[in-house]
Amino acid sequence: MAETFLKNLNPELPDPDYLYHLGLNSQQDRLDEVFADVGHVSMPGSGRRAFHFAKELVSTLGGSFRVMGKEPNQAMDTQAAADEALEAVKTGKKDFYDLTAEHQDQLAQELGFPRIVGKDERYWMFVAETPAGAVVSVNHHMGMPTHSILLHEMTKLLHHVGADRVERPFEFSRQGTSGGLGIEPGTVVVANRGLEPSGKAQYRLHVLGEERAFPTEFDPAMSQALFDCRDVLTVPVVRGDTVSCNDFYTEQARRDGAFNLTGSEEAKIAYLQRLHAQGARNMEMEAAGFAAFTQLMGIPAACVGTALLNRLHGDQVTSTHAQLASYSDGPQQLLIEHIKRGAGLSC
Ligand code: R2B
Ligand code: URA
Fold it and tell me: How far is the CA of 284 from the centre of ligand 1 (A)?
């Protein structure tokens, strides 16, 4: 296997390695055909946003979706058995990935999205093959625990297929939503660092029961390259630190949760203003863990978050469905432009 650019890679990875949450294993057929040349992995929170991003990539840059289904399943080689299986998926009695490749396609078409790579139980992964290279779009759900599982399995997957070449490191991005700190809804924040709610630039994990702190800086060159693409957006784009919390309500100093430990409006505003004064521009639930993981492994990474509201003006997210979708388009357009420019396709 070629030399890896990854730092601190586990020298004792199992073989085969079962990537349980992705529903893939390292010796699976065609894994290298689908992933060996991946140059960028982008991670929004929701599966639908992951699909939307992959679709936008293919429709803006050209190209197609890569799919990787199972070999036709002998147990479903009659039309009646296949139809029955399809119905079972629709009614939740079977998983999508239990279907044959053909029936995954059929169902995907009915639901209006292409076949998910791997299993669809936890993460929805799409692989777009474009003139700017192969891009993975996969959702990380909400919070650092689900994001961390995805980061481990995605990194191992790319290593197993030899995509971690020294001469062409792949890069990771998170595209997300957030609560703005002193910025207007729709503003896009390219993060310098992830902060814990105390305001410290660190992410803490327990290792064998002992707490360890990890630094949380995003790749400065990649973050700047993304910021430099801001001319393609009509909304403001700013740089700043991103505060990451383990909870949407209490840790984000909301006063509208089922209980209120935040206290008075004055106490809340004083806290949020303190974070703003030290350079934080938004608050969400993943950046610090993401920065710590990628910094430890030497993976170039950037975090682009759009503000759904200005937290200095309130707690409730009252935007309409259409507004929320348009807010999420900012990070996606910025990332598409970055991927294009990285491949020398536009400037
Ligand atoms: C932003 O939005 C989600 C919570 O609503 C969470 O994943 C985050 O970081
Ligand atoms: N996501 C968050 O985590 N917080 C917000 O305020 C909005 C979106």
Answer: 6
Chain centre distance of CA 184:
23
Distance (Å, whole) CA 249 – CA 1: 46
Q: How far apart are CA 285 and CA 280, in angstroms?
A: 14
Are the C-beta atoms of 308 and 285 separated by less than 8 Å? no
Measured between alpha carbons, how far is 64 from 134 in angstroms, rounded to an integer?
Answer: 10
Q: What is the pLDDT of residues 181-222, one digit of tens each?
A: 999 999 999 999 999 999 999 999 999 999 999 999 999 999
Q: Identify residue 27 by its one-letter amino acid code.
A: Q
User: At 74, phi and psi to the nearest 5?
Assistant: -60, -30
Ligand 1 pocket by C-beta < 6 Å: which residues?
45, 142, 176-178, 248, 284-286
- pLDDT score for 73: 42
Q: Which ligand is nearest to the CA of 308?
A: 2
* Ligand with minimal distance to 249 CA: 2
Exposure of 229 in the CB half-sphere (CA atoms within 13 A): 24
* Atom 5 of ligand 2: nearest residue by CA position: 179
Note the pLDDT tens digit of each residue in 44-69: 999 989 999 998 999 899 998 887 75
Core vs surface per residue 52-81: b (16+ CB within 10 A) or e: bbbbbbbebbebebbbbbeeebeebeeeee
Which atom, in ligand 2's list, is nearest to the CA of 311? Answer: 6
Phi, psi for residue 173 in degrees, rounded to 5: -135, 150
Cβ contact 251:271 at 8 Å: no
Pocket test for ligand 1, best of 178, 181, 189 (most atoms within 8 A of CB): 178
Ligand 1 center–CA 341 separation, angstroms: 28
Ligand nearest to the CA of 327: 2
